[in-house]
Sequence to fold (557 residues):
Amino acid sequence: MSIIEAKNLSFTYGLKTPFEKKAVDNISLSVNEGEVIGLIGHTGSGKSTFVQMLNGLIKPTSGQVLLEGADIWSKPKEIRKIRFKVGMVFQYPEHQLFDETVYKDISFGPRNKGLSESEIDDTVKKAAKFVGLSDELLKQSPFDLSGGEKRRAAIAGVIAMDPDVLVLDEPTAGLDPKGRDLLLSQIMQYHRERKNTIFFVSHSMEDIARVADRVMVMSKGRLEMFDTPKKVFACADKLESIGLRVPEITKIMLTLKDKGYDVSDSILTVEQAFTEVVSLLKKEGKL
Amino acid sequence: MIRDVALGQFIPGKGIVHRTDPRVKIILLIAFITLIFCAFNFVSLAVVTAGIITTLALSEVSFKLYFKSLKVIIFIVIITSVLNMFYGTGDPIWQFGILKLTMSGIYRAVFVSIRIVLLILISSCLTFTTSPTDLTDAIERLMKPLKVFHIKVHEIAMMMTIALRFVPTLLEETDKIMSAQKARGADMDSGGLIKKVKAMTPVLIPLFVSAFRRAYDLAMAMECRCYQGGDGRTRMKTLHIKKLDVFCIIFAALILAGVVLCDIFITPII
Ligand SMILES: Nc1ncnc2c1ncn2[C@@H]1O[C@H](COP(=O)(O)OP(=O)(O)OP(=O)(O)O)[C@@H](O)[C@H]1O
Ligand SMILES: [Mg+2]
Fold:
């Protein structure tokens, strides 16, 4: 069943001023419940703008966003309710931390939602566990945490609202490789348990290839492709023409194929590549 | 959105007014403002208005933007002109209790509102066509003589530059933080005054934190580039008076002459 749908969605910044800028241009798509959607595009291609329309932070210049079949802007006064259904983690979310302790900060969302104290306690603890924040850290001031811990605290603040759709705008930007991998697997663990729908904006093709069920490719505000990672990353030329690339490992396998080896062109992860190469070597009797 | 405020925003361009030396523009602005208040009859007011409209037309900034900057002050105009209307002397045309509407009051009201509008238009023209850095640069040059009185002109100008530089950045930051807190269900639009002020805490604290972080980073960056105040500092862009600037000065002088002549030969009405 489709949980969220975009219909001819467009957005222009600074409408009717000299700074007019069309950031999102006529995007239509439909996303099923429980899917993980990867969103890639060159900087300035309108990714952040697009995802901010999904929870009504910005109102489309034209077109509609349908959540469970209903237009989210049908009752503009109740747009706040949408924000509890579609959770949104911004680029550099650690800049939003404000409360005295990490615990209180994470409880900001659930409290706005109107949960009871015991429910709040429950959901805060759960959210902190998902992102790997210890009880010790919960008592500290958010401003005393390290960069990576701040990021986790901020993400926990959104997860604690228990949204059906979770939008993550470059959640791993600026973290070290190990921290990225860990955070990503924690998010995916959360996804498997909660079975929610995820939009995941990233500049890392490797991460997208690893987690996405389908990939949106945006360029200059338009939706260029929307398909499975295999099909998207098979179009290496097209991606390169809009300033993107395929995962390194896919590139290596494509080069091997060009050189005449009989390997698949839709390899996305190192593990897949390993199995593929091993089976090729076995077939040729070299292993 | 917060950023859609038209008053005092630089619009990049290559028109005549954009290219004029910022020092000349500031002096001419002061001249125009003086003229606006030296016009005592409709003819001289018309001369000033014509001069200002010509300047606006030459500025190559759309009139829509000028109207937008007027919107902000429309209330001030209405209130002051209504007050002035009942403030005149002479025979009342219409009377209600102590409120006396006189011909001189009406003239006064018309004058005051035209003056305020002209004032805003010509000042907007300066900020629309001059980048904040050019503006502070010019102010620094013009204030240089004050050094005699041990006023730290360079430091003041640097503070102004930095403050102006960070206005858009902080607005953008406010926008972002507000969005992030709204995404966490913060309610910033409903409720009474106290509730609204309270709702601003989640925005103000991160904003302060980021302002301090930026200030710290900037101080560090300036120190790394050996910034040590104005002494011995040379400039990359030096300002020179060009032919265009001379024309502008002549244009302003003509209007000045027009206003003075009109003021002398036509009886003042206020
Ligand atoms: N608040 C704003 N006001 C005016 N223009 C904006 C604003 N935010 C973004 N834009 C413009 O809209 C376009 C799309 O921006 P957006 O932030 O959606 O890109 P993005 O794909 O998220 O980029 P990145 O990968 O760098 O985060 C850009 O050209 C940008 O300059
Ligand atoms: Mg972005």
Observations:
- Chain B touches chain A through 23 residues (CB under 8 Å).
- Chain B has two domains: 2-152+237-265, 168-229.
- Residues A 47-48, 91, 169 surround magnesium ion (ligand 2) (CB under 6 Å).
